[in-house]
Amino acid sequence: MFSFIDEQGCKVDLRFDEGPFEIEPKHVLVLVQKDGKWLCTINKKRGVEFPGGKVEPGETLQEAAVREVYEETAVHITDLKWFAYYVVYDKEPFCKAVFTGKVERIDEFIEEHETLGMTWLTIDELWNEPNLSFYMKDAGMKKMLQEVKNHERQW
C-alpha cells in the first residue's frame, strides 16, 4: 500500500491489487496510452486529467470505465484491465478503481458533458501542463504512472 496526502489535504491509500475493499469503489479512473502519449480529458472546472467518473446505478465498474472514457473523450477503448484502486478519506470517504485500456477507435468529439474534449500528452508534457487538475499533481498519480511503466503492458 502507498499512502499519501493529496492536494486537498486528504489522506489517500493507493493499492495495486483487487481488494478486498474497505469501501466499495463507486468511481473509476482510466489510464490509456497510445504512441507514447497519455489520453487526457479537459475538464471545464478542474483542467487536464485522466478520464473517469462515477459508476451509474446498475452499471459495473468496467462498464462505467468504458462509458466515462467515451463520454469525456469520444475514444472507444478495449482490453480493459484492473490496475489499482485508492481510497480518499475526505469528509465522506470514497474509493476509485483504476483501469488501463487500449484505443479501439476515436470518434469526433461533440461537447455534451463537463469536458472540452481530449488531448494526448507525453509524460513530460503532462507534468508541465499549466492547466493540470489538482488530483493529477499528487504523489499517488506519480506512483501509478511509475507502476504502469514498471509493469509495462503492451499498449
From TrEMBL:
User: Which Pfam families does UniProt cross-reference here?
Assistant: NUDIX (PF00293)
Q: Name one GO molecular function term.
A: hydrolase activity
Alphabetically ordered keywords of this record: Hydrolase
Q: Which InterPro entries match?
A: Nudix_hydrolase, NUDIX_hydrolase-like_dom_sf, NUDIX_hydrolase_dom, Nudix_YtkD
The keyword Hydrolase is assigned to this record? yes
> Which top-level group of life is the source organism from?
Bacteria
Where the record annotates domain Nudix hydrolase, the positions are: 13-145
> Is Hydrolase a UniProt keyword of this protein?
yes
Give the protein's recorded name.
NUDIX domain-containing protein
